[in-house]
Amino acid sequence: MKKLFTTLSNIWKIEDLRVRILNTLLFLLIYRVGSFIVLPGVSAAALDNQQAREGILGLLNMFAGGSFARASIFALGVMPYISASIVVQLLGIAVPYFQKMQKEGDSGRKKLTQLTRYLTVGITLLQAIGYVRTQITPEARLLAEPLFTISSMVILTAGTLFVMWLGEKITDKGIGNGISLIIMIGIIAQLPGAFITEFDSRLNGLGGIIPFLVELAALFFVIIFTILVVQGVRRIPVQYAKKIVGNKQYGGVRQYIPLKVNAAGVMPIIFAQALMFIPSTLGQFFPAAQGPVLASLSNYTSVAYNLTFAILIIAFTFFYTAITVNPVQMSDDMKKNGGFIPGIKPGKATGEYIDGVISKITLPGSIFLAMIAILPSFAIILGVNSNFAHFYGGTSLLILVGVVLDTLQQIESHLLMRHYDGLMKTGRLKGRTPIAADTGASGSVI
Questions:
Q1: 35 in helix, strand or coil?
Q2: Of 51, 181, 184, 262, which has fewest CB within 10 angstroms of its CB?
Q3: What is the second-level CATH architecture of the domain 1-174?
């Protein structure tokens, strides 16, 4: 306990870190307040939001922090922005023009960011139409058509853009990744209600307190397993040649490149989940054309949904790892600094060796991610309440674990740079890339 208070005191002493944390809390508070502001022209008392709390729409409601079911101005959350990011990154692989733009440095990234924003507007407008048509019943509408639909589309689009802006501000002036934190805070907001609902259902006849305690124990072990997957690393030894400058010796030490088993972070889960929302979105626009295949892909407990979801996660894990970890650049950086992997020739052979190691550890890492992602479906089959089951793995738990660990690592970096003890008594959080051995292997979370 004394260690905890000492760490909190050290955090408060660092002005830059203190300001960043306060800014982050302020921006998140603004987001949570906005999530309770109902769309103009909607009667909150007349809303029939039961459908929005179940199935795949319930998952979307969780990501939006409950805004989806409340018909809030932030009802669509940041998912349109995530979808736009997926499209732009896929274009960066398939279209030479966008590949060239990615290689232009800061100017190219600014152009891609601007394109992502424009695409977000288009996707949000389309989703707003489906949302107004399917989620807001005629009894809840206080304005006549077409004024209600047009005004709601504009406000929902503006709300998504404002949330996107809040996320960018958190990244720039706060601590952690803004978009990730916004999604995480929405998920955490649903946890107390889901916990109480599950406790009440068990206490009132569905097995009693013992099954509930078993569920909590299972949840604990799932969280531990998730942390192991997120934090797991494969260390590659790097030897640096000795240099004699005057009377001093430099180099001659062995360091390690920590390659993460899950170098892509939570991005594969978010990307795959965004694509899995497409069938339900199509079902909103064309209810009459919803066949058995579309209905199965809209049911997150079906075999088709979970199999497709798992395959997408594995594919996106390889894809995102390939664009964030560059073995050739790592090999060149080692060669410039006089480093080499024992037994491997510097240059091309080193790059091929690192690429082979990454491929070998990414496959089991992606399979573990897929296993964790589909665990909620098994929890529901075993009788766990659907809202509480979302925390037994799946996108929700992976985002929570990944974002919390990433934010803690950033806080620890601020402490260590100013010669304070880290958050853990034994030093750096396990899995963090040591500064001296940073050769471009660090991954990114949204």
A1: coil
A2: 51
A3: Orthogonal Bundle (1.10)
